[in-house]
Amino acid sequence: MSKFLVTVEETFTIPGRFLVVLPSVSPDFSGGKRIKGYQTISVRLVHKDGTEEKTEAALCWEHINPIGIRLMCIFPSATKEEVPIGTQIWLLNEDAL
User: Fold this and answer.
1) What is the per-residue pLDDT for 16?
2) Domain 3-96 adopts which CATH fold?
3) Do β-strands 10-14 and 52-64 pair in parallel, antiparallel, or remain unpaired?
4) How much is the CA Rg of the chain, to the nearest whole Å?
5) Distances from the Cα of 39 to the Cαs of 66, 71, 96, in angstroms?
């Protein structure tokens, strides 16, 4: 069963590290489970044109000034072109957390 994470509104790359998608994932998403460090997850990307693909992402807590701590969805090996604005991100295995 898939669980909706977020629709991409913006992306930015931290060179040499990963692609970050915005907005951040709702803190309620994890259902109270504590995510420690980087939690690798399998996701389904649903692009605006309706095409879909499966890939790996990660969830992690990051401190973003001046907003504070947010649950972020990051892609260690993706580019902005591969995860464009408007893409929906779905968690493939809810039990992964």
Assistant:
1) 85
2) Elongation Factor Tu (Ef-tu); domain 3 (2.40.30)
3) unpaired
4) 13
5) 24, 11, 9
